[in-house]
């Protein structure tokens, strides 16, 4: 899971903003070791037991729809012939990430893709799905507002794209049982959280896991995160994981 691809201007931005150079290194590094991106439909077909996936397949997603995805990420993915999925904030297409204005210590906001950028990427193996209408914190909303965010975004995007919008990424990764029920009743087929871990075929389709990619992650660290199913891609965590696997073979519980 990526967010903005571009230049970071403070430590707060640096967590979820990946520089263009680092993003390219991430993708080239994964490709060089046999990883390859797949479409969201291929991923969902695999989850449903309808198809198999080759070793090294992974789903690449971008939350929010920042302009940097078009400017910086798309050319890299085109060279690799890799698809990607973007979760759009339907009420802010062509505007800026207004939800970050109060969160960013410097008050900076950044441009989001407009309709022309989205339509262009549709021709280059990008899929677009929902991140609600305004990037709302869904559990805090009453039922009517929650329905408007979920149903409204789906209707907005289907009108723009001319195709089904079946998947949701929860803003901030926040949801509860009520949000989950509304997501299902709004017609979505699945939804993505920000909970790390592995997605196995029996995973709940409205609690799908994803790994955060941080602006400080090197290509090697990203590969470790994917292999570990963890947001901690440090060498120490990798050692603990591997040591635990060895110990478990001998019936020893690691502490």
Report what the structure shows:
The chain has 255 residues and is of the alpha/beta class. Helices cover 40% and strands 12% of the residues. It is built from 9 helices and 9 strands. The chain has helices at residues 11-16, 20-32, 40-47, 67-80, 115-122, 143-161, 177-185, 219-228, 235-249, and strands spanning 4-5, 17-18, 36-38, 57-59, 61-64, 84-88, 126-130, 167-169, 190-192. The strands form 4 sheets. The protein has a 3-stranded parallel sheet with strand order 5-6-7. Strands 1-2 form a two-stranded parallel ribbon. Strands 3-4 form a two-stranded parallel ribbon. Helix 3 (40-47) links the parallel strand 3 and strand 4.
Furnish the topology, listing elements before pairings.
Elements: E1 4-5, H1 11-16, E2 17-18, H2 20-32, E3 36-38, H3 40-47, E4 57-59, E5 61-64, H4 67-80, E6 84-88, H5 115-122, E7 126-130, H6 143-161, E8 167-169, H7 177-185, E9 190-192, H8 219-228, H9 235-249
Parallel strand pairs: 1-2, 3-4, 5-6, 6-7, 8-9
Helix pairs in contact: 2-4, 2-8
Helix/strand structural class: alpha/beta
Give the strand tally: 9
Strand order of the largest sheet: 5-6-7
SSE string, helices as H and strands as E: EHEHEHEEHEHEHEHEHH
Global outline: globular
Helix content: 40-55%
Low-confidence stretches: none
Q: Which percent band covers the strand fraction?
A: 5-15%
Report the mean per-residue pLDDT as an integer.
94
Radius of gyration: 18 Å
Distance between the termini: 30 Å
């Amino acid at each position: 899971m990526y967010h903005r691809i571009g230049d970071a201007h403070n430590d707060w931005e640096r967590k979820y903003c990946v520089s263009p150079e680092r993003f390219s290194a991430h993708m080239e590094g994964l490709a060089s070791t046999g990883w390859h991106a797949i479409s969201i439909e291929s991923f969902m077909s695999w989850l449903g037991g309808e198809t198999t996936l080759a070793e090294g397949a992974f789903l690449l997603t971008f939350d929010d729809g920042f302009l940097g995805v078009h400017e910086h990420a798309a050319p890299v993915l085109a060279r690799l012939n890799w698809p990607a999925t973007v979760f759009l904030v339907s009420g802010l297409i062509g505007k800026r990430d207004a939800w970050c204005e109060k969160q960013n210590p410097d008050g900076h906001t950044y441009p989001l893709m407009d309709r022309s950028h989205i339509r262009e990427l549709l021709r280059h193996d990008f899929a677009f799905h929902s991140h609600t209408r305004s990037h709302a914190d869904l559990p805090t909303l009453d039922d009517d507002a929650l329905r408007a965010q979920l149903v409204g975004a789906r209707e907005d995007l289907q009108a723009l794209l001319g195709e089904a919008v079946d998947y949701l990424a929860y803003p901030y990764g926040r949801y509860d049982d009520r949000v989950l029920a509304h997501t299902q009743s709004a017609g979505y087929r699945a939804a993505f959280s920000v909970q790390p871990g592995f997605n196995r075929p029996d995973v709940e389709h409205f609690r799908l896991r994803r790994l955060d990619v941080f602006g400080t992650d090197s290509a090697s660290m990203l590969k470790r995160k994917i292999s570990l199913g963890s947001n901690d891609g440090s060498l120490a965590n990798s050692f603990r994981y591997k040591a635990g696997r060895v110990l478990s073979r001998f019936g020893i519980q690691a502490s």
